[in-house]
Amino acid sequence: MSDLFLYGTLRDAALFDAVAGEGPGTTRPATLPGWAAERAEGVDLPVLVERAGAEVEGVLAEGLSEAQRARLDAYELPWGYSLGTVEVEAGQGPRRAEVYLPPADQLSSGEAWSLAHWQEGDGPRSRLAAGEIERNDPRLSPEELRAQWRMMEVRADARLRAAAGGPATVRHAPAEGDFSVRPTRPLTGGFFKFAGLELEHRRFDGGRETQIPREVFTGVDAALVLPWDPETRLVLMVEQFRPGPAWRGDPNPWVLEPVAGIIDPGETPEASARREAVEEAGITIGKMEKAFGYYCSPGTNTDFFHCFLGETRLEKEDVWYGGLDEEGEDIRVHVMSLERALGLLATGEINVGPLVALLLALQQRTA
């Protein structure tokens, strides 16, 4: 198995371990003379540029097993990288090694690329996302990895937000060892994932619940906003066909909702809510207030909703069509009085939890 010179994000030891997995492979410092690593345009990744007198810092991966090398190839090659051969310095004279060459359309920004900058920015998300690759069954094809990578990053960001925790003035404040979560089978699914788990946790009486089998839908963090006009007391909501009610057997699976969407990798919940308002309804949000955040169904899934009230200009009751064609969105936008919306809540026509909660929050704030 040929040695492999790594000059980009795989120099990060945690990412290398997450991608390559267990095996005999080791890494040691090496340099590539006559080349420079520059930041690619629009993305924090390195591009190799030939330059006399320069050198690229990296690591030489040696003794990789076939399985480790296959996992590294599966991580890099689907993105248009190709294998080339270079001569590197690794402390004992020149060594020939293979290297992942970036795709031809990945252009340099002219700025030096910094591993430390990547580690502080995209690094935590990339490590968690890469760790998900090997937990899929069946193994992801290169095409599937490309298609699913964004959602892997979305789930990684959700885990990073979750790690911040929240207040525990009434509920139990867990100590180390109070609970554990162990995966019992590989992840399944495409856009979303389904996980089998075994749980263990401390009981309120001081005992312990052990070997609890559970199945969990691995969803997303989403941003939701209820646009409203403080002067006219009009609110805006969107109407869409939803598969959940249809699969449950509801004869009317068209539902009224707040503006909402998945938080993109590296995006804040507030920025996501503002973007979705433009994309779904064609409006711009001014002042925005965080209403609350919550798990929508914590017994069965990971979905967490970041909910906002956003001020905008709404002059009259109206209906129009919105959404992005490229995302296949079929959206009808409704503008109505807060009082009329609360009436729809009372009759049950508004039957989606986030819109119910946001309307009640707005009613409380405007009482």
UniProtKB/TrEMBL annotation:
Q: Where is this motif: Nudix box?
A: 261-283
Every Nudix hydrolase domain range? 218-358
What is the enzyme's class at the highest EC level?
hydrolase
Instruction: Quote the record's binding site residues for Mg(2+).
Output: A260, E276, E280, E329
Q: Which UniProt keywords apply?
A: Hydrolase, Magnesium, Metal-binding
Stored Pfam families:
GGACT, NUDIX
Per the entry, what this protein does is: Acts on ADP-mannose and ADP-glucose as well as ADP-ribose. Prevents glycogen biosynthesis. The reaction catalyzed by this enzyme is a limiting step of the gluconeogenic process.
Name of the protein described by the UniProt record: ADP-ribose pyrophosphatase
Name the lineage.
Bacteria, Pseudomonadati, Pseudomonadota, Alphaproteobacteria, Rhodobacterales
